[in-house]
Amino acid sequence: MKKATARAVALAAAAIAATAAVAPVHAQDSGNWIVRARALYLDPANKDNTGLDLSVNDKAFPEVDITYFFTPNLAAELILTYPQSHNVRSGDTKIGSIKHLPPTLSLQYHFTGMGWRPYVGLGINYTNLTSVKFDPAVEAALDPSLKRDSFGLAIGAGVDVPLGGGWLFNVDVKKVQIKTEVSSFGTKVGTFKIDPLLVGIGFGKRF
């Protein structure tokens, strides 16, 4: 795990502990909906078998997620954000840029009967790659192209810490499968897997 990701996870754990220590104990807040706003840190795995040593940069960005409870324990969560821009590198050299829009829908199990509200989830991610641009020299030499659509699994876990009045503090960690096929002059040369780890921290409201 990268140092930056380890720091993000450690800070999230410390924030949970600090919030739980000062948060008053409340009865379970009612309501079938939770809307959260979170800051996400994206740490890509950058698994490449094309021989080009491809990678995209890590980054932080905001997101909004909506959760609907079918029962007190079973819920569906949809994560939404705006298209995220990444630099594409071959080794240490920037060769282009992409944008991706990665909505993720998960089915979650929420544990009840305790002050915290931990949960686990399994879902599917759809990523659409847009604004794929390569430097002119790379275009002339390789005529590269990427498959624009990616479907993959998403697995995650998190915790909601009630703050009272339906408000809550949230920390969430997900591993998401995102990959694209890389072609040169119309011929597939390999697969590039971004497969990011997403660490989120934020606040929400249940109603």
List the defining traits of the structure above.
mainly beta, 2 helices
Task: Spell out the blueprint of helices and strands.
Blueprint: H1 3-22, E1 33-43, E2 47-48, E3 54-56, E4 59-69, E5 74-80, E6 84-90, E7 93-101, E8 104-110, E9 117-134, H2 136-142, E10 144-146, E11 149-164, E12 167-176, E13 179-184, E14 187-193, E15 197-206
Antiparallel strand pairs: 1-4, 1-15, 2-14, 3-6, 4-5, 5-8, 6-7, 7-9, 8-9, 9-11, 10-13, 11-12, 12-15, 13-14
Structural Rg: 19 Å
Helix content: 10-25%
Would you identify the regions where 5 or more consecutive residues have pLDDT less than 50? 19-27
CATH architecture: Beta Barrel
**How many domain units?**
1
Total beta strand runs: 15
CA(first)-CA(last) distance: 37 Å
This entry's quaternary arrangement is single chain
| Mean pLDDT reading | 90
Strand order of the largest sheet: 1-4-5-8-9-11-12-15
User: Beta-strand percentage?
Assistant: over 45%
Strand pairing plus helix content: what structural class? mainly beta
| CATH structural class | Mainly Beta
Order of helices and strands: HEEEEEEEEEHEEEEEE
Main β sheet profile: 8 strands, antiparallel, barrel
Briefly characterize the structure.
By secondary structure, the chain is mainly β. It has helices at 3-22, 136-142; strands spanning 33-43, 47-48, 54-56, 59-69, 74-80, 84-90, 93-101, 104-110, 117-134, 144-146, 149-164, 167-176, 179-184, 187-193, 197-206.
Written description of the protein model:
By secondary structure, the protein is mainly beta. The protein has one domain: Beta Barrel (Porin), CATH 2.40.160.20. 13% of the residues lie in helices and 61% in strands. It has two helices and 15 strands. It has helices at 3-22, 136-142, and strands spanning 33-43, 47-48, 54-56, 59-69, 74-80, 84-90, 93-101, 104-110, 117-134, 144-146, 149-164, 167-176, 179-184, 187-193, 197-206. The strands form two sheets. An eight-stranded antiparallel barrel has the order 1-4-5-8-9-11-12-15. Strand 11 and strand 12 (167-176) form a beta hairpin. The radius of gyration is 19 Å and the shape is elongated. The chain starts with a helix and ends with a strand. The relative contact order is 0.23. Mean pLDDT is 90; it is low at 19-27.
